[in-house]
Design a protein that fits this description.
about 220 residues; alpha+beta; 4-stranded mixed β-sheet; about 10% strand; globular
């Protein structure tokens, strides 16, 4: 199937960026935006809910097909399109990619993005200030997640072995955002392997195209 690929969602979303990275790695042409066939969508509106029953992003539009959930989208794109494989052939290594893709999408995203990054990106304190008490409360779990990733990366180039996979596409945007926050140097002080890993991801052609300054409209 060679019909057009459109990613429904804003480019600043870390999960939208994960799907973008997969498209870039495989050389899949795509368009991007929170719209459907050129018509803007209302977030949480009827059209959005028709695409994603939980009113989230991204949603993949591939011809007449619609698919939601980041890992499912990435696995589908990897299976349908030519280009470098984003899942290992070996069953055990493939299961480990699935394991880390799920863990990153649920636990790591909650700790790093939902409970920490978003306090800086969309501050809800008095006069639009960052609620620093929430930031401090979230920090211990951020540190724990970073330590887990540091340990997992020790001894190889990517999260699962020495080849870029869907797990790396999910990890990259949230780590890239985190590293740009105030205090990130302190949080990452005990994670030199993770810092080097992030730099490698940024230096890939896909990283240079996708991990750009966000437009938070």
């Amino acid at each position: 199937m060679s019909t057009s690929v459109h990613l429904v969602g804003p480019q600043f979303s870390n999960f939208v960026r994960s799907v973008q990275l997969c498209c870039e790695e495989k050389g899949i042409p795509y368009t991007l935006g929170f719209d459907l066939e050129g018509e803007p969508l209302d977030f949480g509106g009827e059209q959005h809910l028709a695409l994603h029953p939980f009113a989230k992003v991204p949603v993949l539009r591939h011809g007449e097909r619609r698919l939601f959930e980041t890992t499912a989208i990435c696995r589908y794109l990897d299976a349908v399109f030519d280009g470098p494989a984003l899942l290992p052939v070996d069953a055990w290594q493939r299961a480990r990619v699935d394991q880390w893709s799920q863990a990153l999408s649920i636990y790591v995203d909650q700790a790093l993005v939902r409970r920490y990054l978003l306090e800086y990106a969309f501050p809800k304190g008095d006069n639009g200030s960052v609620r620093m008490e929430r930031v401090r409360d979230a920090e211990p779990e951020v540190v724990r997640m970073l330590a887990l990733l540091e340990a997992e990366l020790d001894g190889h180039a990517f999260l699962v072995g020495d080849t870029f996979s869907i797990a790396d596409a999910i990890a990259a945007p949230m780590l890239d955002y985190l590293e740009g926050l105030p205090g990130a140097e302190r949080l990452l002080a005990e994670c030199p392997v993770l810092v080097a890993y992030l730099q490698r991801l940024r230096q890939r052609e896909s990283g240079r195209r996708v991990l750009v300054e966000p437009a938070l409209g």
